[in-house]
C-alpha cells in the first residue's frame, strides 16, 4: 500500500457497513488518521514483518474500509487485527491524536461476533478466560504447579527439551509459568491504616487498592509492597475483599459481555468502599479501568457511575507523587534497567512518574535501554495466543536490557515481568531478577540491603 491510499473518504459511503450497529468503530475517529505513517516504526508487528496491513495505518485502513462496506469481515481481516498487540505505541507516536485504542477495542467484539474461529483456537481462548480472571481457580491450579516446580520436575523437563513436543501455545504457557510463591494463600486485610509515623496527618487520603486476579495469586509480594508503601506514605488503604478481575484480558480480546459484567462488579465493589482514589499496580488493569466510562457509555444505569469510577483510578506511581514524600528513602546501591510497560506508557501516558520515583532512591542507578518504546511481546495474553512473534519481541527486549549490564530489571506490570523473566531464562540468565517498581520503593523505605532484595527473588 502506498502512503497516498485514502484511508477514509470524508463523504459518507452509500454502502452498508460490514460492522453491525452495536458500538461499531467510530467513523469520526477513523477520519482522524491522515495516513502520515509516523506510527509505523513504533509498531512492533510492522517492525517484525514490514507489512503495511500489520501496521497501525494499515489496520485503520482496513477498519475504515469495513466501516464503508468496502471490505468484508473475513479471516484475513481477523488475522491482521489479531496480530495487533494492543500496545498503543502508535498512539504515542501519532501526531494527529488518533485514538487507536477505541478503534481496535470496538473492532475486536465485532470480530468475535462475525468471524468464527477454529474449534482449537476457540477452545484455547475459552480455557484462558476460564482460568485467568478467577483468582480462586488460579489458586487451585497453582497447587499442582507448586509440586511440579518444587519437586524438580520442571527443571528436568525444561532441561530435556520435552516442552518442544507440546503444541506451541501450551509450551509458551509452561515457559511463562511464574514461580508459585509460598504466600499462595495469603490475603491482605480489608484495611491498612497509615503507619504510626504518618498517622499524625489529619484526614489521611483513603485509597482503595486493586488486588488483581493473576496479581493476587502470583504477585502477592507486589501487592504487599504496594500496601506497605502507601501506608508508610500516610494513606489509609482499603482493600475490598473478594475482588473479581477488572476485565482487561477480555476487553483486549473482544470478549465484550463478560468484560462489561466484570467492570460493573468492580465499580460496585469500590463504590461500597467509599474511597478517594483507586490505586492500581498493574498497568494493563489500570489502562482498562480508566476506560470504563467509554466501555459502559451506552449503558444508562452504569455510564455515569463508570465515568466517576474511571476518574478516581490512578497508577501507584501517580498516587505516590500526589503529595510530597513523607518517608526518608534509604540507599539501595543497585544498577537496574527500567522497562516501560506499554499499558503504562502508551495507554496511560505515564512515563516520567516511575522514573522520578526510582531516581529519588539514593544509590539506585537507573539505566535506559534502546528501543524502549517497543513492546516486550507480553501484551495481556498475546504471548500465549501468538507465541512466536511474542518470543521474537521478548528476545529483542532482553538483548536491549542486557546491553546496559544491570543487576536487575524493573517494570510495572506482572505480564511484562513474566515475559522478561522467560526471555532471560531462554538465554540461561536465571540470576537476573525482575522487580516491580514499587518493590524497590518498599525496599528503600525499609532499609533493605541489595543482597537481601536480590536474595528474596533467587
Ligand atoms: S501516525 Fe497517526 S495519523 Fe499518521 S498514519 Fe499513524 S495513526 Fe494515522
Ligand atoms: S497497538 Fe501496537 S501492535 Fe497494534 S497497531 Fe498500535 S503499535 Fe501496532
Overview of the molecule:
The strands form two sheets. A five-stranded mixed sheet has the order 1-3-2-4-5. The model is unreliable at 1-12 (pLDDT under 50). The chain has helices spanning 27-30, 44-49, 56-67, 75-82, 89-93, 100-114, 119-131, 135-150, 153-160, 168-176, 214-218, 220-232, 248-251, 256-273, 283-289, 292-295, 303-312, 316-319, 342-345, 352-359, 382-385, 387-403, 414-426, 437-446, 450-457; strands at residues 191-192, 206-209, 236-238, 277-280, 313-315, 334-338, 364-367, 408-411, 434-436. The protein has four domains: 7-114, Alpha-helical ferredoxin (Fumarate Reductase Iron-sulfur Protein, Chain B, domain 2, Orthogonal Bundle); 119-175, no CATH class; 191-320, Rossmann fold; 334-457, Rossmann fold (3-Layer(aba) Sandwich). Helix 12 packs across helix 24 (437-446) and helix 22 packs across helix 23. The N and C termini lie far apart (49 Å). It has 458 residues and is α/β, with parallel strands linked by helices. The chain has 25 helices and nine strands.
Main beta sheet strand tally, sense and closure: 5 strands, mixed
Ligands, ions, cofactors:
iron/sulfur cluster
Instruction: Using the 3D structure, state the CATH architecture of the largest domain.
Output: 3-Layer(aba) Sandwich
Which structural category fits the helices and strands?
A: alpha/beta
How is the secondary structure organized here?
Blueprint lengths: L26 H4 L13 H6 L6 H12 L7 H8 L6 H5 L6 H15 L4 H13 L3 H16 L2 H8 L7 H9 L14 E2 L13 E4 L4 H5 L1 H13 L3 E3 L9 H4 L4 H18 L3 E4 L2 H7 L2 H4 L7 H10 E3 H4 L14 E5 L3 H4 L6 H8 L4 E4 L14 H4 L1 H17 L4 E4 L2 H13 L7 E3 H10 L3 H8 L1
Parallel strand pairs: 2-3, 2-4, 4-5, 6-7, 6-8, 8-9
Antiparallel strand pairs: 1-3
Helix pairs in contact: 12-24, 22-23
Bound molecules: iron/sulfur cluster (2 copies).
Amino acid at each position: 500500500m502506498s502512503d497516498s491510499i485514502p484511508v477514509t473518504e470524508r463523504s459518507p459511503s452509500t454502502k452498508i457497513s460490514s460492522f453491525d450497529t452495536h458500538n461499531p468503530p467510530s467513523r469520526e475517529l477513523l477520519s482522524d488518521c491522515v495516513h502520515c505513517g509516523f506510527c509505523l516504526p513504533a509498531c512492533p508487528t510492522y517492525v517484525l514483518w514490514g507489512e503495511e496491513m500489520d501496521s497501525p495505518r494499515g489496520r485503520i485502513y482496513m477498519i475504515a474500509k469495513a466501516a464503508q462496506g468496502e471490505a468484508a469481515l473475513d479471516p484475513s481481516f481477523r488475522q491482521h487485527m489479531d496480530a495487533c498487540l494492543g500496545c498503543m505505541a502508535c498512539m504515542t507516536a501519532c501526531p494527529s491524536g488518533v485514538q487507536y485504542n477505541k478503534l481496535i477495542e470496538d473492532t475486536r467484539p465485532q470480530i468475535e461476533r462475525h468471524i468464527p474461529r477454529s474449534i482449537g483456537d476457540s477452545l484455547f481462548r475459552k480455557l484462558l478466560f476460564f482460568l485467568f480472571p478467577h483468582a480462586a481457580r488460579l489458586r487451585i491450579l497453582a497447587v499442582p504447579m507448586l509440586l511440579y516446580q518444587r519437586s524438580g520436575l520442571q527443571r528436568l523437563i525444561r532441561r530435556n527439551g520435552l516442552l518442544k513436543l507440546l503444541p506451541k501455545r501450551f509450551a509458551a504457557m509452561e515457559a511463562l509459568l511464574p514461580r508459585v510463591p509460598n504466600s499462595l494463600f495469603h490475603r491482605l486485610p480489608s484495611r491498612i491504616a497509615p503507619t504510626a509515623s504518618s498517622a499524625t496527618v489529619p484526614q489521611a487520603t483513603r485509597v482503595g487498592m486493586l488486588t488483581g486476579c493473576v496479581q493476587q495469586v502470583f504477585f502477592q509480594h507486589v501487592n504487599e509492597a504496594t500496601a506497605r508503601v502507601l501506608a508508610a506514605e500516610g494513606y489509609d488503604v482499603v482493600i475490598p475483599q473478594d475482588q473479581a478481575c477488572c476485565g482487561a484480558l477480555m476487553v483486549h480480546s473482544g470478549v465484550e459481555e463478560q468484560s462489561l459484567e466484570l467492570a460493573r462488579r468492580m465499580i460496585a465493589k469500590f463504590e461500597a468502599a467509599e474511597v478517594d482514589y483507586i490505586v492500581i499496580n498493574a498497568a494493563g488493569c489500570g489502562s482498562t479501568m480508566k476506560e470504563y466510562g467509554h466501555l459502559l457509555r451506552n449503558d444508562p444505569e452504569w455510564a455515569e457511575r463508570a465515568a466517576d469510577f474511571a476518574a478516581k483510578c490512578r497508577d501507584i506511581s501517580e498516587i505516590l507523587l500526589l503529595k510530597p514524600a513523607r518517608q526518608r528513602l534509604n540507599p539501595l546501591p543497585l544498577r537496574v534497567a527500567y522497562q516501560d510497560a506499554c499499558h503504562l506508557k502508551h495507554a496511560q501516558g505515564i512515563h516520567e512518574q516511575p522514573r522520578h520515583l526510582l531516581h529519588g532512591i539514593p544509590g539506585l542507578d537507573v539505566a535506559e535501554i534502546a528501543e524502549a518504546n517497543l513492546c516486550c511481546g507480553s501484551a495481556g495474553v498475546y504471548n500465549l495466543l501468538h507465541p512466536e512473534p511474542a518470543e521474537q519481541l521478548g528476545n529483542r527486549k532482553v538483548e536491549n536490557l542486557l546491553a546496559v549490564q544491570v543487576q536487575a530489571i524493573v517494570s510495572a506490570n506482572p505480564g511484562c515481568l513474566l515475559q522478561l523473566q522467560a526471555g532471560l531464562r531462554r538465554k540461561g540468565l536465571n540470576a537476573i531478577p525482575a522487580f516491580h517498581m514499587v518493590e524497590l520503593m518498599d525496599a528503600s523505605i525499609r532499609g533493605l540491603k541489595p543482597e537481601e532484595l536480590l536474595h528474596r527473588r533467587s
